[in-house]
Amino acid sequence: MMRRLSLLWDKIEKEGLSSFLITDLINIRYLTGFTGSSAYLLLSNGKSIFFTDFRYQEAAKKEVKVDEIKIIKKNFFTEPPRELKELKRLAFEEHSLTYKSYSLLREKLPKVRLIPMRDIVSELRMKKDPEEINLIKEASAITDYVFATILKEIKPGMSEKEVALRIDFLIKERGDVAFPTIVASGENSSLPHAQPTPKKIKEGEAIILDLGATFQGYASDMTRTIFLGKVPQRLKEIYLIVKKAQEKAISQMRAGQKTKVIDAIARNYIKEKGYGKYFGHGLGHGVGLAVHEKPTISPLTNEKLLPNFIVTVEPGIYLPGLGGVRIEDLVRISEDGVEILSKSEKELIVL
Fold first, then answer.
1. CB contact at 8 A, 5 and 124
2. Is the overall model pTM greater than 0.90, yes or no?
């Protein structure tokens, strides 16, 4: 944790600042180890001060690695602590601090210049250390186990909700659920972020399973599309296109490559096959303490991939009225390629 704080201090100093208030709880966990739901972290003049309330004082003693822990008894924004009042300039996380909280700070700290700062902590979080990589691998292994198990249990007549609940149960036996599980069958599979419904699963349908686990706070994310009974010819066609698009993108991923370039490899292949307008989301995103974090792999970003970034690669084709296909893997970027963390089968699966 102290190494992460040291790296953040370097970033703060490069911005010409000496004080930074962190309010994003995921960023606070990354920097301090705190797993509770109420905290603030102040970096000021070379010192790290952690603020929480009575509920978490014992947890903070066990988890938090900072210079000083303070237990606050009053609202942090209506009655700011002395450490804030003594400052001349204070940077804050512009993505996290609400307008209401910002307004209160302006009112209560009239002599302090408040400076909005981009999410520089998430920039640090993009590059995973060995411990983080191992935790994400554990989370990914849970996802693979659950997928293999649920394949043996899906039957015609089960509802999407039944399958989703069973997936969640299996995940919670070994970790926790990273995000609301997606089970989408038949026409529902043409909805990229469908929610499980009471709809019964039928033979001849595509079924998209998008699931993720967390292990000690770190997430996994994987999608597979499977089929029950006979596979409609057009769905088989788009399955093979999506699979090939993903393979092409992954084959070109390595440190130094740009996110926009990787997205274009998969997107252009799908366009060449006549389905460009049916792939409307980005190719991937970072995964770590949050299931969606930087970097984003899409036509709208041009970030450079670096070693030990962990990202998803998830092309899809969605045909309204028929169904959809998405295949998503979790990969770790290396100097000369990737390590694929999702081990589940990607050949066309028919139950």
1. no
2. yes
